[in-house]
């Protein structure tokens, strides 16, 4: 049985962010985002790759977390991408994701029905404000390989952290209940 007085393990320190660039902000940046989940819900990873319109990678970042669903992982990737882009201060931002649900929800084409996604959606919409122009595009998975690879690496980190914890200290998503109507 777990010791109730045992301290909860410390979460890993977030990676250091680079200093914001000085001088004139870029006119346009493209942010590729992807989230990954194992178990749905389970350990997760989120990633973003920021590129110039010429295809040059400016910055990439990944984050491990969980347990959560794949849709939460996709939203976490969006938030990570917006946080990174805000630091670089482009006037125009293009977001590319292989999650059709996320793209259509952020674009306002689909309503956000899931209660656990609503706060993430509100946060993402608020983070769009600093940019003069924002476009969000759905792309095929084959066009998102860099962000996908980073998200999967972050997912593996999340799995290792979970596996290193004793079973009684692991965080588990609450069990879902279903009701037929």
Walkthrough of the structure:
The longest helix is centred in the C-terminal third of the chain and has 20 residues, at 145-164. The protein is an alpha/beta fold. A five-stranded mixed β-sheet has the order 3-2-1-4-5. The chain has four helices and five strands, in the order E-E-E-H-E-H-H-E-H. It is globular, with a radius of gyration of 18 Å. It has a single domain, classed as 2-Layer Sandwich (Nucleotidyltransferase, domain 5), CATH 3.30.420.10. Strand 2 and strand 3 (57-68) form a beta hairpin. The N and C termini lie far apart (40 Å). The protein is 31% helix and 24% strand.
CATH architecture, by name, is: 2-Layer Sandwich
Mean pLDDT value: 85
Which superfamily, in CATH terms, is the homologous superfamily?
Ribonuclease H-like superfamily/Ribonuclease H
Taking all Cα atoms into account, the compactness measure Rg is 18 Å
Straight-line distance between termini: 40 Å
Approximate shape: globular
Q: Compute the number of strand runs.
A: 5
Q: Unreliable runs, pLDDT <50, ≥5 residues? A: none
Q: Could you provide a short overview of the structure?
A:
The protein is α/β, with parallel strands linked by helices and 181 residues long. The protein has four helices and five strands, in the order βββαβααβα. β1 (28-37) and β2 (42-51) form a beta hairpin.
Defining key terms:
4 helices, 181 residues, alpha/beta, 5-stranded mixed β-sheet, 5 strands, Nucleotidyltransferase, domain 5, 24% strand
Helices, strands, pairings?
Elements lengths: L27 E10 L4 E10 L5 E12 L1 H19 L3 E6 L2 H7 L11 H10 L5 E6 L6 H20 L17
Parallel strand pairs: 1-4, 4-5
Antiparallel strand pairs: 1-2, 2-3
Helix pairs in contact: 1-3
């Amino acid at each position: 049985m777990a010791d109730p007085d045992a301290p909860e393990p410390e979460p890993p320190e977030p990676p250091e962010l680079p200093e914001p660039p000085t001088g004139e902000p870029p006119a346009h940046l493209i942010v590729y985002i992807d989230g990954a989940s194992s178990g749905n819900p389970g350990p997760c990873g989120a990633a973003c790759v920021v590129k110039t319109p010429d295809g040059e990678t400016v910055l990439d970042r990944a984050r491990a977390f969980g347990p959560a669903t794949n849709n939460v992982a996709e939203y976490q990737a969006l938030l990570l991408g917006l946080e990174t882009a805000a630091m670089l201060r482009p006037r125009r931002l293009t977001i590319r994701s292989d999650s059709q649900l996320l793209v259509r929800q952020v674009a306002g084409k689909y309503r956000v029905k899931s209660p656990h996604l609503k706060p993430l959606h509100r946060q993402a919409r608020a983070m769009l404000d600093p940019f003069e122009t924002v476009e969000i595009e759905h792309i095929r998975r084959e066009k998102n390989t860099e962000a996908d690879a980073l998200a999967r690496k972050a997912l593996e980190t999340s799995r290792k952290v979970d596996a290193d914890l004793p079973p009684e200290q692991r965080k588990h998503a609450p069990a879902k209940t279903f009701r037929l109507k």
